[in-house]
């Protein structure tokens, strides 16, 4: 039987005094327990010989099958660089791919606009978590239903994430479904993110011609032309591949333009095993690796060394229906394998996690997210997207889930930090002192010193005794997350834009976000 | 934006005909996707040099600090084998421990009493999941409160687990708190498990003198004296250590007796970092390794090669209160490290997982269980205990959680299975055929062939579209688990004991489980 120690000598006293100040200081110093960019690489589902086989299969696919539907511009560019057009498909000789790999960017930096938030040094085994998803619905807590998402939802999700410490980048969680004009859509997404957070962010464009004006918007915020290129805080999404092995025209145009501009290409290539990729997970990995290498080649043909995430996102089908299932064990293991392939090439990696199939933040959502998030991180995924807020196989987003998943990502990041083994941490002398002396470590100086640096204390996760939990209303974590999301959204309006610059942006672009939505009491009542 | 394939060509038709028969056959053949004893070992939080340092620290602790409170019997035995008594503490010279390690059992088998269930071949990197916990309360779904657990609860939990395919062994989930007589307690636990399942099981004893009569009970069921020793289906729990570094008298007596009898010693050594072990996780590992090696030495002094799980269970304290926290990131990583230490010694390992701090099967319970369960398995833990049903840091058990966690363990086991990379699974020819042909894999022969062997389909986890989920009442997985638990408990009475043998057992032992509790409608209404 487990001996659960009941002693509670370290519980802070009621209020005031030294203990309270210490508790306060402790809470502030909790940030040091985990941080952006900790190292993964301890989980390796594939063996070295597996990686070599997948690489060889991808090379063979690129050389003999190639990629269909390239635009005339890309065909010209690629054949100039040594590709071969075979019955309309662009085929990549093996030696050409190996040249591309030798010269591709191995890392890049996404900057934050404030020292409060970390810059993302993307590469190696450094791990960061980010939102993304571009869902079309928002989960309504009270009615447990989904409704179409709006621009204000996107802005609110962004300023909520601004306060969530274990999410290192805001990627576009929802689409403003009420905006049908594609130009308005692009500029308003950019504006909502700019004004919602100073963390690094990610967005996608519907129209390639909107990229340059948006960078002008970013430059206005940074203080002048060319500033964004010096310290880019935004990465540029898109899905340039339609699996199996074809280009998607509009997104390919975006990829060409962002590469010309030297921006960070933050693509996603997401074939589904059994539907748009082979049913065997290994076959899906071979195909998606080929698709990823083709994009990498195009980017590097345009601008050698241009940053691009090797963003192979193998998805899983539920073959009973053919539909995408994001929360399966197959998804968890194949994503970790995708990270390994990226590291095999020493490329910066982006993968998804936390794509639960559940429609509500319940135990299913918890374990599907927890398992996929921790394995993507332990594999060493550099930027792990979709990692908070998403529900229903990416169909919806939830403010409650954003808050709840952030707490979970704290736990995940504590796992990734691992265990430091040194003569000091092994504590042989402390063990001798305590075993021969008081018989417990609770009051030992080493324990007090490490209390705030070795252990991470969750904010939402409940650790109370059953009796106390019952007295407090037998709440589950979803109820608590709803309360906390409301508290943050009612008061946290970062308002990161200089009013004059804001005015200039609103004069120049068709900004639709109401000024009132950027003030308290618009739709969240202060507590 | 993610292209979610809507095609559903493989959905079985309404009823009857070839498709329905195929779906039926498919459901039956799902067992082949995962199985007991799949190989872990792909997650390694510690490096080789860390393992060597922990080993050296443990040896130093055993030699210089030793273990206190040994019984006179154990002191005599141990000093005869070369231990040194130093100020009342039993110290273990380094060379002695190395001898013990060289001769200890590297594996053992726990048998099932039916070909329906797998035998557990414990050792190497083979992974199995089991319940356990010995909680004192049961979660009441309707009132969301906890009440004291009873003998009928234990029997019901056991026959529920008998139907849950991803749980390979039943360990004693709850204590019959209404039984105060320690002999009645021991015999009734044994009887409840014997009659509740033919899976391998685990139990602990309050009184050492009850072990031999209980084995006679087991022999009666198997058909005669000595039969249990030939095919043991029960492992024998206990906590012979009170951390830091002391023996626990009663449990040490049990360990001595089970070793004399050559039974499977299924102990648990659970010091808490910061309370009964050092705050640094590495220090806790050094201490618990020393404690585990001391037990291994005693077992092997008594009977060289007697099976014993190297069951180091480092626990985490929440140092704000000093109480045990089972659901933290620290717990997840230190348990995986404990498995690595066991594998460093090539010993069979037992570790806990799924010890959530939540009091209800919510998202917190989900991610805390999911993360700890998958990492213990990927590390290669041989028998992973506490893995289903437990809530509130092991204070309570829940029928709903048993059902729900079983579904999660299916996902976890699919992760552990990993990805098979062969020329065939890489599918280069299939990719070529599909890319140049139909453009999707849904109808391909390879997809149809692998539909039931590559992918695991959950039973409780929901994958429906949001609209369908709303139409069906916006249920969470806890509600579905409650329904399924009730359905199984209402009808699944395995009744595995021959009536005559049952009568003999009841004549000989003070059996308290009402015969009515072993029939339908006792407290679960058939649907």
Descriptive overview:
The structure is a homodimer of 527-residue chains. The first copy, chain A, has 19 helices and 21 strands. With 527 residues, the first copy, chain A, is α/β, with parallel strands linked by helices. Among the domains of chain A are: 55 residues, no CATH class; 311 residues, TIM Barrel (Alpha-Beta Barrel), CATH 3.20.20.480. In chain A, the strands form seven sheets. A four-stranded mixed beta sheet of chain A has the order 1-6-19-18, covered by helices on one side. In chain A, strands 8-7-21-20 form a four-stranded mixed beta sheet. In chain A, strands 9-10-11-14 form a four-stranded parallel beta sheet, covered by helices on one side. In chain A, strand 20 and strand 21 form a beta hairpin. In chain A, helix 9 packs across helix 10, helix 11 packs parallel to helix 12 and helix 13 packs across helix 18. Chains A and B meet through helix 2, strand 15, helix 10, strand 16 and strand 17 of A and helix 2, strand 15, helix 10, strand 16 and strand 17 of B.
């Amino acid at each position: 039987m487990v001996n659960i120690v009941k002693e509670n000598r370290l519980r802070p006293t009621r209020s005031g005094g030294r203990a309270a100040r210490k508790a306060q200081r402790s809470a502030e110093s909790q940030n040091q327990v985990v941080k952006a960019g900790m190292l993964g690489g301890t989980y390796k589902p594939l063996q070295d010989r597996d990686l070599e086989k997948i690489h060889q299969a991808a090379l063979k696919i690129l050389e003999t099958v190639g990629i269909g539907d390239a635009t005339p511009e890309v065909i010209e560019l690629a054949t100039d660089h040594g590709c071969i057009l075979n019955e309309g498909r662009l085929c990549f000789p093996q030696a050409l791919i190996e040249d591309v790999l030798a010269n591709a960017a191995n890392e890049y930096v996404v900057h934050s606009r404030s020292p409060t938030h970390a810059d993302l040094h993307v590469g190696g085994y450094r791990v960061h978590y980010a939102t993304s998803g571009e869902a079309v619905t928002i989960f309504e807590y009270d009615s447990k239903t989904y409704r179409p998402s709006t621009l204000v939802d996107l802005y609110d999700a962004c300023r909520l994430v601004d306060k969530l410490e274990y999410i290192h980048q805001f990627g576009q969680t929802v689409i403003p479904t009420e905006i049908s004009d594609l130009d308005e859509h692009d500029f308003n997404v950019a504006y909502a993110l700019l004004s919602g957070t100073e963390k690094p962010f990610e967005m996608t464009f519907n129209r390639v011609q909107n990229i340059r004006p948006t960078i002008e918007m970013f430059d206005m915020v940074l203080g002048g032309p060319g500033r964004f290129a010096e310290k880019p805080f935004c990465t540029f999404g898109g899905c340039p591949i339609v699996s199996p092995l074809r280009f998607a025209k509009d997104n390919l145009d975006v990829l060409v333009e962002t590469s010309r501009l030297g921006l960070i290409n933050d693509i996603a290539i997401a074939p589904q095993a059994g539907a748009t990729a082979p049913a065997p997970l290994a076959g899906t990995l071979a195909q998606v690796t080929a698709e990823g290498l083709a994009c990498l080649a195009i980017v590097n043909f345009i601008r050698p060394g241009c940053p691009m995430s090797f963003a192979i996102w193998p998805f899983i089908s539920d073959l009973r229906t053919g539909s995408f299932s994001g929360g399966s064990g197959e998804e968890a293991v194949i994503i970790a394998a995708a990270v390994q392939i990226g590291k095999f090439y020493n490329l910066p990696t982006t993968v998804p996690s936390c794509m639960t199939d559940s429609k509500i933040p319940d135990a299913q959502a918890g374990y599907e997210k927890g398992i996929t998030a921790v394995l993507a991180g332990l594999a060493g995924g550099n930027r792990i997207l979709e990692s908070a807020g998403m529900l229903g196989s990416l169909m919806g987003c939830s403010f409650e889930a954003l808050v709840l998943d952030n707490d979970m990502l704290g736990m995940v990041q504590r796992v990734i930090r691992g265990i430091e083994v040194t003569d000091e941490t092994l504590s042989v002398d402390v063990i001798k002192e305590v075993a021969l002396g008081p018989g417990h470590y609770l009051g030992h100086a080493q324990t007090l010193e490490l209390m705030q640096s070795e252990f991470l204390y969750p904010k939402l996760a409940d650790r109370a005794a059953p009796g106390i939990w019952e007295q407090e209303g037998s709440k589950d974590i979803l109820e608590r997350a709803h309360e906390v999301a409301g508290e943050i959204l009612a008061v946290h309006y970062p308002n990161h834009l200089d009013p004059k610059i804001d005015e200039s942006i609103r004069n120049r672009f068709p900004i639709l976000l109401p000024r009132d939505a950027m003030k308290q009491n618009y739709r969240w009542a202060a507590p």
